[in-house]
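Hello again, I could really use a second opinion on something today. Take your time with it, there's no hurry, and the full record follows here:

___
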Amino acid sequence: MKRIRVMAVDDSALMRNMLNAIVNQQADMEMVATAPDPLIARDLIKQLNPDVLTLDIDMPRMDGLDFLSRLMRLRPMPVIMISSMTTRGSSATLNALEHGAVDFIPKPGNQIPGDLAVWGALLADKIRGAAKANPNRYLNSATVGAVLPGIKTDITQVIAIGASTGGTEALRCVLTQMPVSSPGIVIAQHMPAGFTRSFAQRMDTLCQIAVREAEHGEPLMPGNALIAPGDRHMTLVRRSRGYEVHIDENAPVNRHRPSVDVLFDSVAQQAGKFASAAILTGMGNDGARGLLTLRQAGAWTMAQNEASCVVFGMPREAIALDAACEVVDLDVVSQRLLDSFNNNLQRKRAD
């Protein structure tokens, strides 16, 4: 079995030692080197050619973001950012994802559930996902198209989207193309607490539609996108007029909270044939079964194709279950979601 070759860049000796121990405890990976700053890391990368890099943001001699930007131009590779949980840290992490980082993990601390073993298992999972990622594909797919023409909408129509690894940039591509005149959108993106609010605020500044971190009992309106808060499930609930979202702290599903399956199951039950849904890039199988439930309920469903995915895990599982009515490139997800309402597919679903 070929082991994943990992390299860690962090100015903290304690953190480097901890990362080294966690990685070398995994049967399928090894730490080939650690570096205290990007300048030393640059030479080691040339010598050792690691498969995955973990990278701190705040470091001496060269900022982690500057190093990442140069690295992705000259030698694209899967990078996982080690991020602080501060407001500045979440903002810097989102910048890193825009610059080509595949994923991130908050530094261990009081806001990380469980103990160091839990954090280590999460890091190992992220390294495995990153090792399967194609950074060139990532950079080519994270484009932003023009805003699409609006469609006639009503409050019974819903768009549901699920994503994980690579999802923040995939969502940026999808949401920035959405016109104000579009159905209400609910989103489950695998992301820890403390980051979804910053992500929603950033999307809101880039999009014509309004984008917010969802609050319990908030109504879902056309031209609005609600993102499930980190470490919380979100479900859709039908009311006498339209829908609202509920937020809860029930147990993780598929090891995730928020879970795409939880959101998709509720949309299937509450909206059925009045919904369209897309499952985007991500590792694992969360959302695949829920997408099938949506299709069986009469919703129009789609999966992102392998050519435009950072990690073709969740979409692959959905396709294997025959959960997707169509498989599409990321660049056209927004258009196809709108087309599913424009083309009177709701009427066809009822036939």
